């Protein structure tokens, strides 16, 4: 039986019956999936908003690489604020009413494809940023401030938007899944090339440093700065690896043949899709664990929010006592 998402039959009645049969989930899995996606949606929304607020309000975080992380957080917010509520509604319909919720599924596909494509292109843009910062540190600021950052940000959003447009204009017999596969392949080729050159540059730099230990004192500042950039690059490499692990199962089940290899709306598909969407709630945890500047900014925002809540409670209590 063909479980492709685009599978249709010429008989509407039989098609409806097939959908009713296929669109069902065991209650236990349905409730677990609904709970997981709801938690991911709430946690991811709060975390990505925290990243955005931290970059906007903290001067130490206003640097090109963090503006790219800000933009990536926007892409993740599309998942947590739009896709996750749609998924929860779809799962509820499938679990409790055996309803495929075709209209909701269509909306979900539009936003999820945009967000996923934007995320993977952002990964490529972040890799280019790290490549320039480590391989050409003396020119990094001038390149990024003049045109580099704008070019990376524009590309990170315009490029993902071209896939749906191309998908609408290409002939019906063209395997549209390969458009997305091409975008993934190009983005990951960029990531691989940039990080390969970064590793080569670091190996070369280490060799030169060993040969010039006598001049170490005059190179302390540049070496310290380079160490910071390398740590940031390693942190963002973790972000890329986590993204890959989260999304690869879903990409593999579809792009390998141009159609789903597991049952559409089935248990395996829903859990694989949930794994991919959960990536949008992970990045802020990685930033907080690996980057001190983000960790301190998160703590400052938390303290400010806590003081605001206490002041509000105090004001309400005082006004109530006066009345």
From TrEMBL:
It is a multi-pass membrane protein. The chain crosses the membrane at residues 27-56, 68-97, 117-139, 151-171, 177-203, 232-256, 268-287. InterPro entries: GPCR_Rhodpsn (IPR000276), GPCR_Rhodpsn_7TM (IPR017452). It is found in: Cell membrane. Keywords: Cell membrane, G-protein coupled receptor, Glycoprotein, Membrane, Receptor, Transducer, Transmembrane, Transmembrane helix. PROSITE patterns: G_PROTEIN_RECEP_F1_1, G_PROTEIN_RECEP_F1_2. The keyword Transmembrane helix applies. One of its GO terms (cellular component) is plasma membrane. One of its GO terms (molecular function) is G protein-coupled receptor activity. It comes from the Eukaryota. Pfam families: 7tm_1 (PF00001). CDD domains: 7tm_classA_rhodopsin-like. Residues 47-287 form the G-protein coupled receptors family 1 profile domain. PANTHER family: ADENOSINE RECEPTOR, ISOFORM A, OLFACTORY RECEPTOR AND ADENOSINE RECEPTOR. Belongs to the G-protein coupled receptor 1 family. This is Melanocortin receptor 5. The lineage of its organism: Eukaryota, Metazoa, Cnidaria, Anthozoa, Hexacorallia. The gene is MC5R_15.
